Amino acid sequence: METKNIKAFGTEAAEAPLKTLDIQRRAVQAHDVEIEILYCGICHSDLHSARNEWHGTMYPIVPGHEIVGRVVKIGDHVKNFKVGQLAGVGCMVDSCRECEHCKNDLEQYCDEGNILTFNSADKHLGGHTFGGYSQSIVVDENYVLHISDKLDLAGVAPLLCAGITTYSPLKHWKVGPGQKVGIVGIGGLGHMGIKLAKAMGAHVVVFTTSVSKFDAAKSLGADEVVLSTDPEQMAKHAKSLNFILDCVSAEHNIDSYLNLLKVDGTLTLVGAPMEPLPVTSFSLLLGRRSFAGSAIGGIAETQEMLDFCAEHNITADIELIGINEINDAYERLLKGDIKYRFVIDMASLK
Length: 350
Ligand SMILES: [Zn+2]
Ligand SMILES: [Zn+2]
Hints:
350 residues, binds zinc ion, 11 helices
């Protein structure tokens, strides 16, 4: 297959810093869209993957799955995109399209395993897929999203992962007006959860371990902010929440949050702590509560989320960086020193 040589930013080893790399993209096929990448968000999973912390990383790795850009070329059979339009790519670039989940717009749970934007087997070129820290990407149009030109493009990029990861569970558990919803943690995911839950009409209660984040939570849209380390403040919300979106990736006390749910309430994890989380049976039994998890969202739902954000004027709060600042950004990410997402200005990759 014909290929095109492009510049990217990635690493050849877990311990090595990221640097400029040359990679190959496939030539545009009949159903493909080629996107010149303008912005790419930095997700925590980029860092985990680059450093092989979840194991199985194939090197060289080019991370990045919060991609926004402009269509520069389309294949002969492309129906839904035109050259010059804005386009986005999230965590997936393909899936089996045959299993019950793919047929039900739940490609994120594809039985065959979907093809992730980076570090999945590349069925076109062999080897593995390369992500959005690069000049361009070629993706089947069925896995490409339409992006509104009403919103700040750099702030849209994180919607492709952090946005859909929080939107999908809020929709699935039918968050809306008249409900009290808890958001645990105010990071890349949590700050999107607050904005989205608020826009869906819920009364939003934010839980944080830090008094210093109270004002930030309020300005993001929180109706109430609770210091989760203060048992008295926590007790005030006992048995009162319909739903809790847990965005924390570190070890934390699940029982203390389950006990805040009403009867039939659900706590859903979207953060991914490395260690197992202990749960006391009575936290679930007394109140018929559910403890659940959720991973990104399907392609149709991702489009729905992007349209919802355009309608409600929602973007991520970001810090725009140049490509050479990625290694520093990773260190700051580890310290939680970011409000709330780094986005790379891809014009800086030369
Ligand atoms: Zn991500
Ligand atoms: Zn499938």
